[in-house]
Isocitrate dehydrogenase [NAD] catalytic subunit 5, mitochondrial
Amino acid sequence: TAAAPSQYTVTLFPGDGIGPEIAESVKRIFNAADVPITWDTHIIDVHAAKPGEDLISKEALDSVRRNGFGLKGPMATPIGKGHRSLNLTLRKELGLYANVRPCVSIPGVDTLYHDVDVVTVRENTEGEYSGLEHVVFPGVVESLKVITRDASMRVCEYAFEYAIQNNRKRVTAVHKASVMKLSDGLFLECANEVAERHKDSGIEFQTLLIDNAASLLVSNPALLDVMVMPNLYGDIISDLCAGLIGGLGLTPSGNMGTGCMLAEAVHGTAPDIVGQNRANPTALLMSALMMLRHMQLRPQAQLIERSVYTVLQEGVVRTGDIGGTSTTTEYTDAIIRKMDQLR
Ligand code: ATP
Ligand code: MG
């Protein structure tokens, strides 16, 4: 592989609500860790867009395409103004084909489980979310689930690539081919084919019915590793996994696109605490760390992650959403101090 560039430019969408506060925290921490990133900041003014227009400008989308990396805070799509949803625009325009969510138990964060270390890789472009629904006649609706060979191969390939790059042991394809014989059957066939191609990689492969996966995740999540699945299953299972480790406020998320990656916090804009310096920046920060690993900036990602984990484990400085009383600034300062100690 080619040597990694020494300096990166990343498109930053701070977003709405608490977005700017948590983005500021990420920028300060990255700065203190000497991460070689220049931010190309784009403020999306969702109220400035005319009805029917896209909320994200072509210029902002071009910036992600050009830089190859973007980081996105939470954004609110105004409802009922005739805009294409923000997420839909980003997904279509950037070709975001896989959503990746690593969920690891965080020591010191009180949850029912302590040994979770799973990654959901969700197909992000088709399946049950193709948007093809129609009324056959009043009282009867059909909704089309579309599964293609291209999209299935691509997302399964990515799951293996991720597993190899991140030293994982196993990829599990999650499906319901016992009932959806043709659609999930095709997905499963593709997963098997990709697994066959990677049989010398040392990554194990297994298949699991979606209902069995749900049961296993709540009874013994330690038995699962990387999971790859069609859109709807991935939507549900990725939130389930976030719940296993303490919720969306702690869970990173990354979207793989054609020639680019968009890391994002999947929680909302938290309108109830905006401007109060109370937001928890962990989810956005952890998403940004996924991006660093993808850029081969692992030492910096490792240092920041260890500092976050240590601060959370010590439990002295933490934000209100996870039972503390500290401000966003105090938590950010604590992580920066911890980095100086651990370095
Ligand atoms: P949106 O419409 O943007 O989804 P929402 O009203 O659904 O906003 P969420 O952002 O989804 O609100 O948040 C739900 C709850 O979780 C709120 O009480 C919010 O304050 C809290 N919350 C969400 N994210 C964070 C965070 N990063 N730090 C602290 N609290 C958070
Ligand atoms: Mg919400």
Remarks:
- Residues 18 and 274 are 5 Å apart (CA to CA).
